Amino acid sequence: MDQRADPAATFCATLIDEWIHNGVTHAVIAPGSRSTVMALALAQRTDLHLHVFHDERSAAFAALGIGQLGIPAVVVCTSGTAAAHFHAAVIEAHLSAVPLIVCTTDRPPELRDVGAPQTIDQTKLFGSAVRWFHDPGVADASASAAWRSLAAHAYGAATGGWPGPVHLNLPFREPLLGVAGDLPGRSSLMAVTINSNTVVSPYAIAWLATRVSTGRGVIVAGRNCGSPDGVLALAASTGWPVLADARSGLRHLDGVAISAADAILRSADFSSAHRPDVVIRLGQPPVSKVLNQWLAALDAYQIHVTPVPNWTDPDGVVAHRIVAEPGSVCTALAAHLSCADEAWLADWVDAEQLAQTAIDASLANAALTEPGVARAVVAAMRPGSHLVVSSSMPIRDVEWFGVVPNGVTVHCNRGANGIDGVIATAIGVSLATRAPTTLLIGDVAFLHDSSSLIGLVHRGIDLRIIVIDNDGGGIFSFLPQAAALAPDRFEQLFGTPHGVNLLALSAAHAIPAVQATSIADVVAAASATGTHLALVRSDRTANVAVHAAVNAAVVAAIE
Fold this sequence. Notes:
Layout: H1 7-22, E1 26-29, H2 36-43, E2 49-52, H3 56-67, E3 74-77, H4 81-84, H5 87-96, E4 100-106, E5 132-134, H6 147-159, E6 165-171, H7 202-212, E7 217-221, H8 228-238, E8 242-244, E9 257-258, H9 261-264, H10 268-273, E10 278-282, H11 289-296, E11 301-306, E12 318-323, H12 326-334, H13 342-364, H14 370-380, E13 386-389, H15 393-401, E14 409-411, H16 422-433, E15 437-442, H17 443-448, E16 463-469, H18 480-484, H19 487-495, H20 502-508, E17 513-515, H21 519-527, E18 532-537, H22 540-558
Parallel strand pairs: 1-2, 1-3, 3-4, 4-6, 5-6, 7-8, 7-10, 8-9, 10-11, 11-12, 13-14, 13-15, 15-16, 16-18, 17-18
C-alpha cells in the first residue's frame, strides 16, 4: 500500500467495492462526524445510489424499504445515540427477514469507557436481532488482505438462507479525511454463495402427500408464500381454496383465491361447517386475527412451509414444518394429489362472491369511510406499482377489504407490527424500484415518522401518500378498553387526540397536499404522479360502526 494512503479510507473503499461487486446498489447515510470516512468513500462511487437522511431512524427504515426488494442497502451513522436510533429498523429487518448491512462508526478503543463525548458501548448493540456482528478494530494496513473477506462475510450473512441485518461496528481515529490508496486485489477464488432454501426430497413429498390426501383442506398464503404458479397448481389439483393475505400477491387468482376470509369466517354457520382436515400454511402468518383464531381452534393437520428457518407458530398448532421455497413444495405436492370434493372449493368461492358483493353494497351509499378508502386505493393500483401500508388500521382495512390486482406488490412492516418508520420505508421502496408507490398510513404513524418528510420533494420519486386522519389512535376504539373505560380516561390513554394540522405540516415540507372529500378524490390522488399527499378525515366512533355494518352485511349475505 502507498505510504501516503490512509488505511481507514482504503479500508472503507475496499468494503464498499466488494459490496458493489456482490450486487449492492444503494447506500443510506445520516450525517455525522465520526462516519466521515465511510460517507466520503460511499459518495465517491458513481455506481452507487447514495441517499442522505437527517434522522438516523428514517435512514435505517429507508434502507429497510430498499432491502425489501431482496438486495441489502448499506446504512451508515456516526457514533453514540445515533446508532441506537437504528435499532427499531434492525429489529424489523430481523423479524421480516430483510437483508441489511448496518455500519455504525465508533470511537477508537482508547476513547471508550473514559467519558469521551458521543461515545456509548456499541458492542453487540442490537443483541440477537442481527445475523452477525463484528468489530474489526481500527483499520491497519497489515490486515488489508482480510478486508474483502470481511465485506463478503457481511454480505453473505445478510443475504443467506435466513436474510436479515448484519452489524459492523467500525472505529476510526482522527483525522477523518484521509485519501484511499490502491485497494487490495480480489481473489479469483473468492465468491459469496447465497444459501438456497432446503430442497425437499421426492420421498419426503410422497410421504407428506399420504398425510394430506384426505379431501378437505385450505391453503393459507402470507408474505413470502412462493410463486403463484406453484400455489395455483396445488389449489387446482386438490380443489382447495387459497386464503390469501393482502401481502401474498395471490388475491388475483380467480376461482381459488379468497380475499374476504376475515369477513366470511365471522359467519358462525360457515366457519363451523367448513372446518378443514388439512391446513397448508405458506410463508408468514396472515394479518387477520379472525382467520388466525379460526386456524388455532381447528382440529386439523397443519403444515407450515417457509423459506426462512425462524420458528413461527404462536398458537402451537403446526404439526409439520418445512423450510424450503413454498412454491416448489406446492408444485411437488400437486403432482401427488387430486381433488376429492369439488363442492368444497365451490362453497368457498360462492362465499367470496357473496362477501365482495355485500362489501360493495355496504360501502356504495356510505360517506367517505376508512374501509372505502382502503378498498378504493387498492383497486386504483396498477401492475408494477407498490403499495406500502402502515400497521394498525390501514393494513387491517387492506386485509379485510382490498382485492389486490395482479402485479401489485404490498409491503407492510409486520415483523414487529410497529408503526415507526413507515414513511421512510415507503421512500426506500420507491427509491429502490423507481416505480409508482402509494403509501396508506394513519395520522399517528404519519406524525411518528414526520422527520422522514425532510427533503422528500427533492428525492425525485413517485410517492403518493394517503393519510387517514381520525385525530388519534383509531385501532384502540375496536378494543375492550373503549367500552370498559370512561370516555375521558380512554381519550387520555388510548384515543390520544393530537390536534395537528397535517395539511399545514405537509405544506411546511413543500409537499403538495389536498383534503379528499369523496372516493373520487381518493382515486385521483392514488392515480396521480409525483410526490403528493391526500388527507382523509374520519371519525373514530363512526369508523367502528361502519366496520360492524360491513361485516354484518357479509354474514347476512352468506347465512
